[in-house]
Specification:
about 80 residues; alpha+beta; two-stranded antiparallel ribbon; 4 helices; GGT_lsub; glycoprotein
């Protein structure tokens, strides 16, 4: 779940001011089946994204992430995860 949140947050950071970003194209990519397959292939049970890419991060020990998914039939799932001090 944490890895899914990391990927979702990375994509969320691409959403900006529509005057400067093509939000429609970004959202179409984010909601495509092929992109979902790609993200699923990136999530591993035995390693984190930082481990795979050797990214250095600062852990402040707290934060909140939220993920919402809406299907074509209108069904929806929302998950929020909070880590506090």
């Amino acid at each position: 779940m944490i890895e899914a949140f990391r990927h979702a947050n990375e994509q969320k950071s691409k959403l900006g001011d529509p005057r400067y970003e093509n939000i429609t194209a970004i959202v179409q990519n984010m909601t495509s089946e092929s992109f979902a397959d790609y993200i699923r292939s990136m999530i591993k049970d035995d390693t984190t994204k930082q481990d795979r890419y050797d990214v250095k991060t600062v852990c402040e020990g707290h934060g909140t992430s939220h993920l919402s998914v809406i299907a074509e039939d209108g069904s929806a799932v929302a998950v929020t995860s909070s880590i506090n001090n």
